[in-house]
């Protein structure tokens, strides 16, 4: 579901403030921060649960304690057998799995093995801008989304898109990080298709050379004829 279209100029300013666009190595997934002691991985952040999300909880070898669909209440809690209400809002699925494991091991089980996954995400939005056919802010019904899938939401790239300059902008602990990807390489399965996270901004670059060629062909028919003649 597309919610609204953001200003391309605003996002361009954001990109300029975050990194130098094509100066970022293709496939870069970690960028250092002056305020952090270690690089933060751009592609590995987990989705943080929020109200009205739906999660699946599996307790290995304990089907009576497993819940295929557990809804997160408006207060950010889920209700679980034996444990009762558990606050999960603002936590990742791995953190919630650890909380459930500890609660079960403390009173009911020995060496409980718990997995938690997102079935439906009510709070997942992603911004797609730049050279795509339908830029905007999209609400995603699942927390599992790759870069290629995200661009498909914007109905694909435009004819003047620069495929090797697709930026993913992510905010982590108040700092913005940028990773650059080559869409052509991803489509050819020569580069990993990165996971997109809640709140990410995707900006597809602009190919000046392609745009100039199309402008010349569109405005100067004689030039177009010359190109055709040269290719024969």
Short description:
The chain has helices at residues 8-18, 93-107, 147-153, 183-187, 208-219, 221-231, and strands at residues 2-4, 30-31, 40-41, 54-59, 67-71, 77-80, 84-87, 114-120, 124-130, 136-140, 161-172, 175-181, 201-206.
Write the layout of secondary structure elements.
Layout: E1 2-4, H1 8-18, E2 30-31, E3 40-41, E4 54-59, E5 67-71, E6 77-80, E7 84-87, H2 93-107, E8 114-120, E9 124-130, E10 136-140, H3 147-153, E11 161-172, E12 175-181, H4 183-187, E13 201-206, H5 208-219, H6 221-231
Parallel strand pairs: 9-13
Antiparallel strand pairs: 1-10, 2-3, 4-5, 4-8, 6-7, 9-10, 11-12, 11-13
Helix pairs in contact: 5-6
Given helix and strand content, the structural type is alpha+beta
Low-confidence runs of at least 5 consecutive residues: 1-21, 28-44, 221-232
Number of beta-strand segments: 13
Give the overall form. elongated
Helical content band: 25-40%
Number of domains: 2
Distance between the termini: 47 Å
> Count the helices. How many?
6
Q: Mean of the pLDDT scores?
A: 75
Strand order of the largest sheet: 1-10-9-13-11-12
Oligomer: single chain
CATH domain class name of the largest domain: Alpha Beta
Identify the CATH homologous superfamily of the largest domain.
Answer: Outer membrane lipoprotein wza domain like
Describe the largest sheet: 6 strands, mixed
Tell me the fraction of residues in β-strands, as a range.
Answer: 25-35%
